[in-house]
Write a structure and sequence with these properties.
alpha/beta, TIM Barrel, 9 strands, 7-stranded parallel sheet, 217 residues, two-stranded antiparallel sheet
């Protein structure tokens, strides 16, 4: 992502998703801040808790408490990003006052987009995130018309402004009418999925999207 940041000027850079629970909290916070700085404030921090119990336990994370750890890690990172002498004391993440730079360019920090099964990810996003990447199977039919009203209702019930929480969907169709419908429903962005192929296959796809995107504005 650092290479992509150096080679581009306008594209947003995002993790989709970063398994924070398999990473060191302080080091990850510094990496996010550095990436946001060198990209000029273009980083979006997509996060998730993961599902592979054996893999996360190889990293020292207990499967049953992974989401508590994720919440504490994000709370701790916010302290690191915003305070001159941050400290945090949770059950699973704890550190005494320290000094760490750089701070992110975006204030107070890059957007935190929470991925996962809709109902659970929605609650986490409302509690400590700035948006959601819902998994389609957990969002019923996966259609925005079905889960967006519920997400906004959940935000209002929790005292959050629904307008402050973005919705990102995966698998953007090469269909301008469908894309406009998602846009009008309030979906902020959609991911374009590319196959693991060589340039001769990927570049024509990108060329098609380069022609399609201006139609959405």
């Amino acid at each position: 992502m650092s290479a992509a940041a150096a080679a581009t000027k306008r594209l947003k850079l995002a993790t989709g998703v970063c398994l924070v629970i398999q990473r060191d909290t302080i080091q990850t916070a510094k990496l996010v801040a550095s990436l946001d700085q060198i990209s000029g404030g273009r980083f979006i921090f997509g996060i998730g808790g993961g599902w592979n119990a054996e893999e996360m336990e190889d990293h020292g994370t207990v499967y049953e408490t992974r989401f508590k750890k994720l919440r504490e890690q994000i709370e701790a990172m916010k302290q690191i990003w915003t305070k001159e002498k941050p400290e945090y004391h949770g059950e699973l993440v704890s550190f005494s006052p320290m000094m760490t730079w750089p701070k992110p360019k975006q204030k107070p920090h890059p957007p935190i987009i929470v991925g996962g099964a809709f109902r659970y990810a929605a609650r986490r996003a409302i509690r400590y995130g700035d948006g959601i990447i819902p998994q389609a199977p957990s969002a019923g039919s996966g259609e925005a018309e079905e889960f967006l009203p519920r997400f906004r209702q959940m935000a209002e019930e929790a005292g959050r402004d629904p307008g402050s929480l973005s919705v990102t969907l995966g698998g953007a169709p090469e269909d301008p009418d469908r894309l406009k419908r998602y846009r009008d429903l309030g979906v902020v962005r959609m991911n374009v999925r590319l196959p693991p192929a060589k340039a001769d296959e990927i570049l024509p796809v990108l060329d098609r999207w380069a022609k399609l995107i201006p139609q959405l504005h």
